[in-house]
Amino acid sequence: MLFSIVLLYCCSSAGVLSQLSIHSRHGRECVSPCFSLQQRNNSTSPKIKVDLDNSTGVAVLRMQSPPVNSLSLDFLTEFCINLEKLEMDKSCRGLIITSTLSKVFSAGLDIMEMYGKSPERCGEFWKAVQEMWLKLYGSNMATIAAINGSSPAGGCLMSIGCDYRIMADNPRYSIGLNETQLGIVAPFWFKDTLVNTVGNRAAELSLELGLLYSAPDALKIGLVDQLVPEDQVLSTAQDTMSKWLAVPDHARQITKSMMRKQTIDKLLSNREADITNFVSFITKDSIQRSLRMYLEMLKSRKA
Ligand code: CO8
């Protein structure tokens, strides 16, 4: 019931909806024309590819938006539509999320969506971020993040929104909610999701210091559940999924709802205020300056 409410609530996706393509294991592609897309950037190619294996009931959602799978409004909209479609497909019981990019799972929220934008646009963007989390954290499907690269901030949020996390055993990859390092503050529902995952003390340290954990350190604090060699991330996720799907759906779903309902309800009952807070915070001159400095740091690091 909770999950249905969440779904209904999240269905209204800020008016920017895309065509959705889902590929079956046998290469069949069904394009649903039931949504119309208002393109917001130059790229018209799908940022997400979904393959649903009808024989196992497991879908693999691949993020494929170079260079770093940053979560722009377009990306989030496409992500939510795909999730919604899978959620409504009774044959789909499990979802694995991974990346097609080498080295990066997701760089988190697209900083350019928060820098130099109008309050209206920032509000629209934040609503899409909320929707992504509500849909994922409240999903009826068993969800596994197959983290095959770095996953800071919003990428970490997406990972901890899943039921289980498998990460590539590569010390160069990092994961965490590093918002304070950018001079911004993770909202209460980011914090709640992290607390639910690693406990209060680890979350406090992690959030205040904006820590990014190497894969082995992330395993130590329980931010991820398992490390495997890089080339086995997806296959391990598929093996693990079969264990999750061996549990009767209704029992797993009710238990998941029991664990997550309070956290989800908190955002649902404060959604508008959360958007207002985000917009007034992110459009402040001092915060815009912090974001600019961070962007410059990213560019100079690259140079
Ligand atoms: N948004 C937009 N552009 C980005 C982002 C991003 N999050 N991350 C990287 N880019 C850009 C870079 O600037 C670079 O652009 P260009 O090619 O034009 O110079 C390009 O992507 C490639 O980046 P890198 O060269 O750094 O790629 P690497 O493969 O070397 O590294 C990393 C990949 C590790 C992901 C690295 O890019 C990185 O650390 N990125 C920053 C990640 C980050 O800090 N994200 C935080 C986003 S904020 C967030 O998600 C939550 C905000 C909550 C807001 C709450 C407010 C109230």
Automatic annotation (TrEMBL):
GO molecular function per UniProt: delta(3)-delta(2)-enoyl-CoA isomerase activity
GO biological process, one term: fatty acid beta-oxidation
Annotated EC: 5.3.3.8
Entry-linked CDD domains: crotonase-like
Catalytic activity: (3Z)-hexenoyl-CoA = (2E)-hexenoyl-CoA; (3Z)-decenoyl-CoA = (2E)-decenoyl-CoA; (2E)-tetradecenoyl-CoA = (3Z)-tetradecenoyl-CoA; (3Z)-octenoyl-CoA = (2E)-octenoyl-CoA
Gene3D superfamilies recorded: 2-enoyl-CoA Hydratase, Chain A, domain 1 (3.90.226.10), 6.10.250.170
Annotated protein name in UniProt: Enoyl-CoA delta isomerase 1, mitochondrial
Organism in which the protein naturally occurs: Oncorhynchus mykiss (Rainbow trout)
Gene: eci1
